[in-house]
Each structure stands twice: as C-alpha cells, then as structure tokens.
Write a structure and sequence with these properties.
Radius of gyration: 23 Å
Strand order of the largest sheet: 2-1-3
Helix content: 40-55%
Number of helices: 6
Structural class: mainly alpha
Number of strands: 3
Largest sheet: 3 strands, parallel
C-alpha cells in the first residue's frame, strides 16, 4: 500500500478481517511468506495459508475426457472440504486461475479471489470491508453472451422441437380416437 505522504505511514485498509491464501501446486516457490501474503497483512488482514493439497484441476487437465472425476477426488483430499468449512466472512485468496475455477465449481458456492480483487474490495469498502457474508459475491462472474445468430438458431431449434413434439402428441391422440 502506498505510504501516506503527510505522515509516511501506511494506511490500514482492512482491519480485523481474515483471509485464507492458497497457492496451487504448480508454483515452484513456497507460498508462506510470499509478497502477496505480506501485502495482505500490511492491509490489515489476518492471513493464514491453507496447507490443503492440490486443487486437482491442473490447468485444462481436469476438464479433459476421463479426468474430471479424478480432478474432483484430488480436490476433495484437502482443499475443497477446507474451503467449505471456512467462516462465511473469510476471504479465500487463490491467485491461480485453475485453483479459483475448481473452488468455484466444487467448494459449496465459495469462490476464490485474486489478490488484485482483494485490493479492489479494500479500496471500495475501506477498513471494515464489505458488509455480509462471502465477500467474493461482489465479483459477479461476467458470462459472455453467445452471438445473436447463435441465440436465434438455438431458439429456432427449441421451437421446432416443441412443435414436433406437439404434432406427435396430436397425431397419437387422433389415432386413438
């Protein structure tokens, strides 16, 4: 955090809140004592590092055919149940995209935030943090909309299926009559 130019002291922007940090196993350097953890502590967060094993996703590997169930079993060895048991107001910090994705898909509605998102929360909500549980809720995942032509094609196929089903039901009713 930048120092206050009048006093030379750092601003405490998130007093009293807790963050659990998690770094995926693909990282070569140990996570404890990382610069991100140091920054979060300087912001006033009580930081603990999750020692919870691998998330299991490993980039795109966990999404490949035949790997998804194994990927979830890996995550269930430690990370996913640990995240589910965290206090509702604890921020889950996971800088890795794969780790955040696995947490979002399988940790009971929790989402990991990148340290930059935690900085944004601190800037917007100040020392007391955002009100209410699950601070990650403030970062709604933007889902890209498919192109209009694709949406129209999907709607047309759905309408055709419904019309075909209705026609089949009507034909069956006429045959019985």
């Amino acid at each position: 955090m930048p120092a206050d130019t009048t006093t030379g002291e750092r601003d405490d922007v998130r007093g009293g809140l807790a963050a659990e940090t998690y770094e995926g196993r693909q990282e070569l350097a140990p996570r404890k004592g990382s610069k991100a953890d140091e920054l979060l502590r300087e912001m006033g967060l009580e930081v603990e590092t999750l020692e919870a094993g691998c998330c299991g996703l490993a980039g795109s590997w966990g999404f490949e055919a035949g790997h998804y169930e194994l990927s979830l079993r890996c995550g269930e060895q430690g990370l996913l149940p640990t995240v589910r048991q965290l206090d509702e107001e604890t921020i889950v910090v996971a800088d890795g995209f794969s780790c955040r994705t696995q947490i979002e898909h399988a940790a009971g509605g929790r989402r990991g935030l990148h340290v930059a998102q935690v900085l944004a929360l601190a800037r917007e909500h100040g020392p007391s943090g955002p009100p209410g549980p699950r601070p990650e809720r403030l970062f709604a995942r933007a889902q890209p909309q498919p192109p209009l032509a694709l949406r129209v094609a999907r709607a047309t196929v759905a309408a055709a299926c419904l019309a075909g089903g209705a026609a089949a039901v009507a034909a069956a009713a006429r045959m019985r009559a």
